[in-house]
Design goal:
alpha+beta, Immunoglobulin-like, 3-stranded antiparallel beta sheet, 8 strands
Length: 169
């Protein structure tokens, strides 16, 4: 096999591309290993916001979450999806999405701090949740154990990292 001038130019280009791709994969794996144990979501509060104007058998509930960041970098949240349980009874599914907002415009999670986020979800009146419904309506949730179980998508400058969370209140 004779090396021509074209082959001498093309071979190093392919080697550089290959090394670049391998480096990018290694960097994102290192980034995920750093972020995964140092970032999380905590359920802070669950409160009734109002009864739905269009349907009196549906309550709007506000769920307050805090995303903490114990890394040395500033991060952003792309999406949070979760299931909300009251006394281990599934009461609904909630989500927050910032995917339509450019990365530079999203709420930052600064290094060594936490960011409070609120989500609204609908709680339909049903026999399974009547006790929880009544307690929320009377603003008396004493004796109710709340739990949020879900996934948060954390964005860095180079990757999106998904992390499971489970937090009780």
């Amino acid at each position: 096999m004779k090396l021509t001038r074209g082959k001498i130019v093309i071979i190093p280009i392919f080697v550089i591309i290959f090394v670049g791709l391998v480096s990018l994969v290694a960097f994102t794996e290192w980034e995920e290993a750093e972020i995964n144990p140092n970032v999380g979501v905590i359920l802070e509060n669950v409160k009734m916001k109002k009864i739905d104007d269009d349907n009196p058998d549906r309550m709007i509930v506000r769920v307050d979450l805090a995303v903490f960041n114990n890394t040395e970098r500033t991060l952003a949240i792309s999406r949070i999806g979760y299931y909300l349980y009251a006394n281990e009874i599934l009461v609904g599914r909630g989500s927050l999405s910032f995917a339509d907002i450019p990365l530079s415009g999203r709420a930052p999670i600064f290094s060594g701090s936490s960011t409070a986020l609120s989500s609204e979800m609908q709680l339909p009146k049903s026999p399974e949740v009547m006790e929880i419904w009544s307690k929320l309506l009377n603003n008396d949730t004493e004796g109710v154990t709340w739990r949020a179980d879900g996934v948060v998508q954390i964005e860095t400058a180079f990757s999106i990292i998904e992390k499971d969370f489970n937090s009780s209140l």
